[in-house]
């Protein structure tokens, strides 16, 4: 539009203006994301059962950097109206949040439903619907009922049945209003960090088989829930169901064939192990990874591969069980076949693939050791996924930046990160990737897992010293709001005031 005003100016100038003003499609969904344990608090309120994060933080507080926990967190259990008010201030189209399994089913099993827990989510969802904010609901964002962990959790072959029972309760209770379902958030973090290592609850640290057994039963559980939805709910509820997988970018350090292969192995270990069984044409675990684990397992004296293969029947059952691919994307690293290797515990996923990783020291650093501003990483990840899994629809279900707890409300690094990421996303859309939405992580500061409250991801600052958990918008909230309103990334936009308001119509 603005180009019309410049008729008479040189055409090159007009083109530059047009290029700067590329837009997100009108039906593109912008939102923010959170997770139950990170924001809710009310850890034992009104009949909620204990989950693995309650259990771990209460029995081993030292594993959390500041020895904190999510007992109260941002207290969204008592602040849901304020949360929705913030969504209205930002002008969100959608809000992605997760359900706490043990708030709904205190023991994990569906024989006892905690009605007070259901009421909490009813209120949260109804408040969003009242203001035309679309709820996007994750069934599982890492807070397994402790009773199920006592039975082995994701390593128990019965896990897929337990998850299906829970999913059915949730579809039944909320499916009249919720039309976007995500079964699992980030299988890698659940399986590798929680079972194959010790950087997430339940810190099982079964380095040899934890990741692989968890991967198998998680993927089967996902397929069970998807089929339950399609067979028994979709016809009347008319929604969609998918999974969210963390896909950071792993590119080769050099263009040598060895580095290309190393990067492919790394991608297989990081996310294809969960995505391939669901989205690929051949089904099952990724080929090269399967072969390496099988070979090393036999060499190490195991009777069979530590990676438990799917049967042909299971492969068919799982294929195509997702209406979309939810991508959580934060950063990228380079992968090398020979250089930058660490000494890994053997046997483990990392020693199985045995590659090195490198992050250029000049990439902008966040408050999180793993999170750097990596150029073009959304574009690289999405175009790679798009070429690999044809005709797949994507959402970015998380993307965001951390700052230290004492940082100012003026968060220019976060703003730079969001603008860079959203430009990279526009590049992917222009390259033909079918991306329907983007959820910024996060609406507000929250309990950052093993880092406690020492890393802040919020568009809104939360005062964790105040009993009301007061929420205050950062500068990035105003910038995000402007992008949502205009559908354009203006690199020069500066808010005139840091006072929030609700636009008419929201
Ligand atoms: C995890 O297991 C490995 C291998 O047994 C061990 O070396 C490591 O110390 C364990 N980590 C923790 C945090 O217990």
What this model shows, in words?
The chain has 506 residues and is α/β, with parallel strands linked by helices. It has one domain: TIM Barrel, CATH 3.20.20.80. Helix content is 41%, strand content 13%. The protein has 19 helices and 13 strands. The strands form three sheets. It has an eight-stranded parallel β-barrel with strand order 1-2-3-4-5-7-10-11, surrounded by five helices. It has a three-stranded mixed β-sheet with strand order 6-8-9. Helix 18 links the parallel strand 10 and strand 11. Helix 11 runs parallel beside helix 13. It is globular. It starts with a helix and ends in a 20-residue tail after the last helix. The N terminus is likely disordered. Bound molecules: 2-acetamido-2-deoxy-beta-D-glucopyranose. The site of 2-acetamido-2-deoxy-beta-D-glucopyranose has 4 residues, from loops.
